[in-house]
Amino acid sequence: VQLVESGGGLVQPGGSLRLSCAASGLSFSNYDMRWYRQAPGLERELVATITSVGGTTNYADSVKGRFTISRDNARNTVYLQTNSLKPEDTAVYYCNAQHFWARSSMYWGQGTQVTVSS
Fold first, then answer.
1. Strand pairing class (9-11; 112-116)
2. Segments of the chain assigned E as strands
3. pLDDT in tens, 55-112
């Protein structure tokens, strides 16, 4: 199983980035997908979730209204559209996959760096 994130980079405050996570080696449509982030010196934080069944989404309060998670099951890919970025959004963003009922079946990507700075 591989989860490969891409789309990170350096962006000015107020800017946008679209993060992607391409999955392989698993039945993607059976997995709830999540984006986490971890800033230096801080614990890993759950940012957004999209479920396998129904595509229900949930967001951390800190990103509601600015970030949007989506998935394309035909492409085995989950996205995180990040808008109105703030310096406090600077972190390594990680993709996570968890089977919708076999909860011990969980995988992580290697992360992609997002830096918001002028």
1. parallel
2. 2-6, 9-11, 17-24, 31-38, 45-50, 57-59, 67-72, 77-82, 91-99, 106-108, 112-116
3. 999 999 999 999 999 999 999 999 999 999 999 999 999 999 999 998 899 999 999 9
CA within 13 Å, CB half, 66: 16
Looking at the DSSP bridge assignments, the partners of residue 6 are 20
CA distance linking residue 15 with residue 12, whole number of Å: 6
Residue position matching structure tokens 């980035």: 17
With CA atoms as reference, report the closest residue to 112 among 97, 95, 96.
95
Q: Report the Cα 17 to chain-centroid distance in Å.
A: 12
For residue 5, which of 17, 21, 18 has the smallest C-alpha distance?
A: 21
Tell me: the pLDDT tens digits for 16-54?
999 999 999 999 999 999 999 999 999 999 999 999 988
